[in-house]
Amino acid sequence: MRVLKRLTLICLLLVLLLPLAAYLALRASLPQLDGEFTVSAITAPVSIERDAYGVPVVTAQNRVDLAYATGFVHGQDRFFQMDLSRRRAAGELAELFGAVALPLDRRNRFHRFRNRARAAIADLVHSESELLSAYAAGVNAGLTSLDARPFEYLLLRARPQAWQAEDSLLVGYSMFLELNDDLAERDRQRGRAHRVLPRPLFDFLYPHGSDWDAPLEGPPVSVRSVPTATEVGEFLDDHKPVKRQRVALPDVDIPGSNNWAVAGWLTDSGRAIVANDMHLPITAPGVFYRARLRVVGDRPLDLTGVTLPGVPMLIAGSNGSIAWANTNSYGDWTDAVLLQPGEAADSYLTAAGSRRFTTYLETIHVRDGGSEELRIRETIWGPVLEGNDEALIAVNWLAHKPGALNFRGLDLETATTAEVALGIANRMGMPPQNFVVGDASGNIGWTIAGRVPARADYDASLPADWSERAGWSGWLRAADYPRIVNPQSGRIWTANTRVVADAALARIGDGGYDLGARAGQIRDALLAKERFTIRDMLDIQLDDRALFLARWQARLLATLDDAMLADDPQLREYRRLVENWGARAAVESVGYRLVRDFRSRVRDRVFDMLMQPVRARFGAQTPLRMSNQFEAPLWSLINEQPAHLLGAQYPSWDALLRAAIREALDAYRDEFDGPLTKRNWGERNTVQIRHPLSAAVPALSRWLDMPRDALPGDSNMPRVQGPGFGASERFAVAPGDEAHGYLHMPAGQSGHPLSPYYRRGHDDWVRGRASPFLPGAAAHTLVLRPQSAD
């Protein structure tokens, strides 16, 4: 009996002590924020002050020590995030997560980015490689300063691997994967439609613009007329309807990003104002890391904005003289190259004759599962997509090219004018961005930041045969980059859509740039005012007016005529909600959700109907790409209602519209409980910002994830917001007047859920409150001291 009591007591103690031990182990991986560390790789003391949000002010005596200290705070706060970023690009996630990560590793190892990073680092100029080495040493020092490995590795029962200088390039390649079409899917999917559709119909369905265009230069693209029955023939009648598939359409209604600038002659201070909200998939912790980076030695610097964990530089922000911001350009940076068989086995044709494929064997190590070998064949243009039954295709992607990635962006730190910054942007190696800059003297400008290929004259939007003449011939000269400086309006705006026209557009290409509705809404808001304050910028960033869908609301109401509503109380309630939609993507609006859903269902039905012959040839599940400009032909079709472009499954175009309404009502009835009045936009647009381990350990999701907030906003309006994506940061600043700027981000500075800074500041992002651009007073101070020479 006594033994039993002792065993019971021991069991109770274990039940109590094991969670306590786990908690203490997790707390041990929190970073030290006060005191001192002696380190060996700096030449003078460096201070790291963190404010009430955990935002660091890093002050060093020289730029190399600053890079080291930047790495130190990144390593303290975000190492696991950085590790995932480098592993994703290198195709090395299975080493950490096991076989579940193999599909993604296979896809990304295809690019052999670890090898490319090693080659690229050898080509960097000395000042760049020196900073990367110092940064890597700082990351590892920050990691080892923790009393325990980051908590994620405790959960995974793994140990972190040291950071290497080449890993910073892998982080850059990871952003290429995020922002570019890495497998030329757009070209290949459009190519299938091109091979089947009558050419007039293809050109109609795949325009390069519309009346929604809002470029900085040039007019909107004229909308093509609906092809005639003579031009199309008995196109749809020749094919039986293929069962409609609700397939993902990744190139439509993309989330995108916004940036703009107003010139100094429109502000009271005479300084330009630059605004930026880059929209990306969001996890916890967030994509970016706020920081103020200062050098107080002979070559002073004072940089404030957002950094990317894994990289020792400011991505967007201000240096006191200039402020700069980015949006993804969606230029055409990837081509599908049709390969022709060479004279010998395992060879292909080029303009210089036959060449043998170069074969690489890549080993993917799998945790607890041995390894897997991947065979990759490469051409002079890029790696070969194997198993493609349509044709043998090589992927020619800017990210594969030597020189596509560099760290010339560091030169922005000392730029003093917008003109100088534009020249730097054209020499930078990065996923090409719409680069907007403003300076303290009031000047503003736009250009493409990143390398731009020099192209031959061919249709780069479709797979092309380069066996007689290569499509790319090196890099565009900086002098040939498109630029806009101090436009007469005093305003510059970009929103992932077409910015320029004619020859300038031809140099950039169409890589799936966005419909111009969002850009036009920003443009009109900027043109509606003659004087600007920084607060005005946030008002535009938070603009959730549904201007794009206004005509769809009217079209929906016209479809809901008396005949359709007769003896149907559910439809009458539906119409009442649509009438009172509020014209905003507001959380409480049911009508907004109904209008948006109607447009999406009509769009998908029309696209599927017109693609029936393509699916008949290539298979019902074949991925097909809808143009981002599809709104133009779609609107023409549902209004002109051409009988020769209506599939046999619909007796009339009005029947198609009514079928979309009925489908929506059936879905709401079958998928949800409660009346239609409960189906507001907030229910659909509830943000889910999750930690990468949350899905694997659901019991920890409340601890790891951000709160699930219903938020306003949507695509095709400035406040871009969805359940899994949104503004990765929002800021506006006048260079030299940073004290009046604002900057907030989703999630918090820290990557550790036990840190007070894991969620601090997140609510400002949710509510759209203007957090200060500059960090506040120091709440913690940590000093890094150099190891004495003796």
Output the keywords.
790 residues; alpha+beta; eleven-stranded mixed beta sheet; six-stranded antiparallel beta sheet; globular
How would you describe this protein?
This protein has 790 residues and is α+β, with helices and mostly antiparallel strands. It is built from 25 helices and 27 strands. An eleven-stranded mixed β-sheet has the order 1-27-2-3-6-7-8-9-17-18-22, covered by helices on one side. Helix 5 crosses helix 8 (165-179) and helix 19 packs across helix 22. The chain is globular, with a radius of gyration of 28 Å. The protein starts with a helix and ends with a strand. The relative contact order is 0.16. The model is unreliable at 244-251 (pLDDT under 50).
Topology of this structure?
Blueprint: H1 2-27, E1 35-39, E2 46-50, E3 56-60, H2 63-90, H3 94-97, H4 102-109, H5 113-123, H6 126-144, H7 151-156, H8 165-179, H9 185-196, H10 199-205, H11 229-232, E4 257-262, E5 273-281, E6 289-295, E7 301-307, E8 314-318, E9 322-328, E10 334-338, E11 347-350, E12 353-356, E13 358-365, E14 371-378, E15 384-385, E16 393-397, H12 418-425, E17 433-439, E18 444-449, E19 453-455, E20 464-465, E21 472-475, E22 483-485, E23 491-494, H13 502-508, H14 517-527, H15 534-541, H16 550-559, H17 562-565, H18 569-579, H19 590-610, H20 612-618, H21 631-640, H22 653-671, H23 681-684, H24 701-704, E24 725-727, E25 730-733, E26 742-744, H25 762-767, E27 780-786
Parallel strand pairs: 1-27, 3-6, 10-20
Antiparallel strand pairs: 2-3, 2-27, 4-5, 4-23, 5-24, 5-25, 6-7, 7-8, 8-9, 9-17, 10-16, 11-12, 13-14, 15-16, 17-18, 18-22, 19-21, 25-26
Helix pairs in contact: 2-6, 2-8, 5-8, 6-8, 9-20, 18-19, 19-22
